[in-house]
Recover the amino acids of this structure.
């Protein structure tokens, strides 16, 4: 097994079966600390299942997962979060009737172990002064509109909600952040917002944060990724730079059926 100082995440022969369906098929992968990698593939290729294995939603049928050299294959979701693994989801996962500020503060409190008063629906924003500066810093990093921090989250635009979810994940102080389709549901003109948000996150956290991104929108993948991993029918069929993946015949066949088209 490779050094934990070099690789923050490693999988060895990772496999997940659902009855007769092999959703993830013997994926062996090392993820360098501080890197930004994308996982792409056609619908049903196993991308989200792979994320669910890493975060503990599913238990592997076989294979192993190592985080910073520690075997977490059988660890719970809660244990993995405590170790420093966080994620966002395809479907926006926020507290819609709490303010943007309070959403981030809730995530920060959960990470810190501070007691959350759900019956009183969380004392008013600002009453937990220990978290105030942290929330504002994270909101600024992801580019949330400061004029909308204190209104209910369901009232802010969808692009702001997607950035809010990234902010909530950052509030848990992860060392590995998995972003599952961060631009899901966004209009074309909104996509630069999420690209810039992720770039600001990487610039702010540097090598202290590793990013794994699943995304269908190729402009996001090509703009953000240092390396791309391609899954097809649960197998890893290719990995390489954006240029290498664009020119890979097996990838083009998996996506486009062997036509002369190119990945954008």
């Amino acid at each position: 097994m490779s050094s934990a100082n070099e690789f923050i995440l490693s999988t060895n022969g990772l496999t997940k079966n659902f009855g007769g369906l092999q959703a993830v098929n013997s994926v062996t992968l090392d993820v360098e600390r501080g890197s930004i990698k994308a996982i792409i593939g056609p619908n049903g290729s196993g991308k989200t299942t792979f994320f669910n294995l890493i975060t503990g939603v599913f238990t592997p049928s076989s294979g192993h997962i190592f985080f910073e050299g520690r075997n977490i294959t059988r660890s719970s979701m809660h244990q993995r979060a405590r170790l420093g693994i966080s994620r966002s989801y395809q479907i926006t996962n926020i507290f819609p009737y709490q303010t943007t500020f309070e959403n981030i503060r809730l995530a920060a409190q959960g990470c810190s172990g501070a007691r959350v008063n759900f019956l009183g629906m969380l004392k008013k924003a600002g009453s937990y002064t220990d978290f105030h500066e942290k929330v504002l810093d994270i909101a600024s990093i992801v580019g949330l509109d400061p004029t909308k921090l204190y209104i209910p989250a369901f009232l802010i635009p969808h692009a702001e909600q997607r950035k809010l979810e990234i902010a909530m994940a950052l509030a848990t102080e992860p060392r590995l952040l998995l972003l599952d389709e961060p631009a899901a549901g966004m209009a074309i003109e909104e996509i630069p917002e999420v690209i810039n948000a992720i770039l600001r996150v990487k610039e702010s956290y540097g090598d202290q944060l590793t990013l794994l991104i699943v995304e269908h929108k190729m402009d996001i993948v090509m703009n953000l990724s240092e390396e791309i991993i391609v899954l097809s029918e649960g197998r890893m069929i290719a990995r390489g730079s954006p240029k290498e993946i664009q020119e890979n015949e097996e990838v083009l066949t998996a996506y486009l059926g062997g036509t002369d088209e190119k990945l954008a």
Notes: Residues 118-122 have pLDDT under 50 and may be disordered. The chain has two domains: 1-84+174-264, 92-173. Residues 191-205 form the longest helix (15 residues). The radius of gyration is 19 Å.
